[in-house]
User: Which sequence fits this backbone?
């Protein structure tokens, strides 16, 4: 008998403290390969901290994180090659052009045909015409577009998106939605954090709510409409975080 494959992401007993401030309070979360999970929660719930820990940008105070069956504390460097991250920090160099920024990351990931791949992602995010302009001259929305191009450049199997719609104009938001639809259809594992219930429900397979550093609710997207999700969200963020419900 063949053993079931390990989840793409497995978080167990995750605690993250910053001095006396505890951001995550024993989070248990499993995300299957190819699953799209949307993580909702109010400001200060711990969503960004959780994304940073899974992306190996922050170390947990205690608990474990496994990515594709590997303990993140032991294989963080190699795991990063399989993760694409979009966060509040675009991780770009303002004095460099999009071509130069993406060329740098292409060398980091040792891409076999970087020029062709850079052409593809710049076209995908609508920045081909600005590819030789310094990033410091870009609007917030354009910077976020380039951050998306950076995140998908190496064709990662896991995407972590922390409030990716922040600062985007309508055109850029539509472009991001198109990218997310492609990700959802390509059997990648995706974790998306957002405050926007409608955007977050649009493509996910499962939704979860983080409240005060603990997982307050999780359940499948199937059969869940926006009205029901609003009620669940109000209930989950109103209750003490030690009370968890879900299906």
Assistant:
């Amino acid at each position: 008998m063949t053993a079931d494959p390990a989840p793409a992401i497995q978080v167990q007993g995750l605690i993250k403290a910053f001095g006396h401030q505890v951001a995550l309070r024993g989070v248990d979360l499993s995300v299957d390969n190819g699953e799209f999970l949307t993580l909702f929660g109010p400001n200060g719930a711990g969503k960004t901290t959780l994304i940073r820990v899974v992306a190996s940008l922050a170390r947990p105070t205690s608990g474990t994180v496994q990515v594709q069956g590997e303990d993140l504390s032991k294989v963080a460097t190699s795991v990063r090659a399989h993760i694409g991250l979009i966060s509040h920090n675009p991780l770009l160099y303002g004095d460099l052009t999009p071509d130069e920024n993406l060329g740098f990351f292409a060398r980091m990931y040792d891409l076999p045909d970087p020029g062709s791949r850079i052409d593809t992602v710049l076209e995908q995010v609508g920045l081909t015409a600005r590819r030789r302009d310094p990033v410091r001259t870009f609007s917030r929305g354009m910077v976020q577009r380039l951050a998306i191009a950076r995140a998908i450049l190496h064709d990662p199997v896991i995407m972590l998106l922390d409030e990716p719609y922040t600062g985007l104009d309508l055109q850029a938001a539509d472009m991001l939605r198109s990218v997310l639809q492609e990700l959802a259809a390509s059997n990648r594992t995706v974790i998306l954090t957002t405050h926007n219930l409608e955007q977050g429900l649009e493509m996910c397979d499962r939704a979860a709510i983080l409240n005060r550093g603990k997982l307050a609710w999780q359940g499948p997207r199937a059969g869940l409409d926006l009205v029901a999700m609003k009620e669940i969200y109000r209930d989950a963020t109103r209750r003490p975080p030690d009370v968890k419900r879900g299906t």
The helical segments are 47-54, 72-79, 98-108, 114-124, 140-152, 170-185, 197-201, 226-238. Residues 243-247 have pLDDT under 50 and may be disordered. Residues 9-246 form a domain with the Rossmann fold fold (CATH 3.40.50.300).
